[in-house]
Amino acid sequence: MYLDERKIKILKAIIKDYILTGEPVGSRTISKKYELGVSSATIRNEMSDLEDWGFIIQPHTSAGRIPSDKGYRLYVDKLMEYETIEDKGLKLFERILEQKINQIDELMKEVAKLLSSFTNYTSMVSSPHIKKTKLKHLQLIPLDTRSVMLIIVTDANIVTNNVIRMDIPADYDTLNVLSNMLNESLKGLTIEEINLPLIQKLKVKMGIYGEIVSSILDAIDHTIQMKDTPEIYLSGTMNILNFPEFEDLVKAKQLFHTLEEKELLASLLAKVTTDGIKVTIGEENEIDEMKHCSIVTASYDIDGKTVGTIGVIGPTRMEYSKAVSVLSYISKNLDKLLRKIADG
Amino acid sequence: MYLDERKIKILKAIIKDYILTGEPVGSRTISKKYELGVSSATIRNEMSDLEDWGFIIQPHTSAGRIPSDKGYRLYVDKLMEYETIEDKGLKLFERILEQKINQIDELMKEVAKLLSSFTNYTSMVSSPHIKKTKLKHLQLIPLDTRSVMLIIVTDANIVTNNVIRMDIPADYDTLNVLSNMLNESLKGLTIEEINLPLIQKLKVKMGIYGEIVSSILDAIDHTIQMKDTPEIYLSGTMNILNFPEFEDLVKAKQLFHTLEEKELLASLLAKVTTDGIKVTIGEENEIDEMKHCSIVTASYDIDGKTVGTIGVIGPTRMEYSKAVSVLSYISKNLDKLLRKIADG
DNA sequence: AGTTAGCACTCGAGACAACAGAGTGCTAAC
DNA sequence: GTTAGCACTCTGTTGTCTCGAGTGCTAACT
Fold it and tell me: Would the CB atoms of B151 and A141 count as touching at under 8 Å?
């Protein structure tokens, strides 16, 4: 098996045409539309080879060929040309910045929207993983004699709060002193560094406040545990219905069902630890309902640390070049947006 | 036009059967399945009257009848029997409470999920309208020399935060004193009572702190304005695809598109000012894409004050009795859940 | 040896007719 | 006022046919 120049050209033509039209592409189409200087009969011979090697598939005897997952994989890895979207992208980003967004969740929603409207696929955005972000401030606020609200502010001003139910009442001043002490000890640490051993040490150190400290520290730990799975924002879910491959409602419904399982998506996005772009094509997906889909994901950073993931999901017949370009651009620039909302 | 006992019974039978099967119901079906003691010919005569008066419709000459919007309206207003769901409902609520939810948004999501999975329709839940809730605590936290985070805690421990960019640097102690003063003046007021005139008065009163107070008060006002449209949580969107009336993908897509316009839904839900349940059937809907749908909504309270809305959306062929019963039950009991998370 | 023209063959999509079934409206009898 | 009977209408399904796109193979060409 040797893929010479001409076979590559033919494969590329098939994939491009199929991505464009969604129809199986025949030898005559290629010889007419793409200038290869050979007749359809020659192309037929070459296609026969490409099929033997598993890069293309014939849905039925008298139809044209469509790319296989293996074909797409080769295309994505070696053949595809990337688009540059600097200028277009900038305009879109400006549009987001014009709106007065100053909550992280609003921003993530907006990014998801942007992503889906620009690619016409379904987009997924995971919010920054709080464990990887650094503690900026911690504050205890008394609500009534029995309950205290714990507020944690981290990088990019991500705010979490939790009500702590106290066994011993604590007054405003005590809580203030405690807030200060905790801030001094913990500020600048990433949330995942504030683990049980460290908390145990603090408990000993702050002996005077005894039990109050104890229950508060437990609550801190609890809050952190709770926020372990990041929020997932979806947008353009129904874009899927625009693709003929999901005309079969049963298939579409299955996929929708899967998309509603946020935990599943979270674990899927969490796997993107690698820097850069990851493309998962059809059968490569671990989730059965997604074996007809391709997923393109990219991770994004805060302060140079990977904290979250963005991605799109569409049919295997996806405009990979576009998806990759858009994701790459947005993931590279997302930290700027995050800093922007952090600065108010 | 006079609807005697028998016509009512026949209309009810048609509606019930159609809601159940989704198929036009014929005279023979009724005479067989529902014991009215008359033959199909008699029922045919009666049906002819009901059609003349607009309660039922014949899709084509040789088909059975289906209820019209007018028919459903009569059914909902006068004929329908309500279900009691006390026991079932309680179990579902317990299930929610078992999970450790202590954020309002988690709760609302969970309620939406519950609603959609229990009714099999698409559910909408609007989060408590912050303007109607009372201020419980307000806190200013210094982030760095130039920015301060404003945290507002209201009823049911709904927390909002916003970063304020300061022209004049303010130190920790100053902010603390300010927090205390503002708390004293504003605590217990509903957020909508904290309006510009009141803020102006405060500016004068706190003359000593001059410009710092001024920019903080502006930020408070800004934060409140920003949070004006409540969050909308949807669940079970794709349930719509289960109904044969949305087999036509174009119709379904239109509806999905409408459902993604959160602002539209927000304004739709905001209209439910009336206490109790509101049923909007087919053509009664103002939004074109929803003229094939029915919407059932109910408002819910915090501390006896209406603060939000829950609802379901489905085909006009909806199990109104179930929808109404479920919504009524949940809306009546939602404040208990809200209180529960408020108490930690 | 590689390329091309020609041709028989296959398969799917669409058009069309025939048919069965459900349901109605009307009439005449009870 | 109710019912049985019957002719009529409309839809959905099934089977048959044709058309067109596309292939694979063979034989001829460069």
Answer: yes
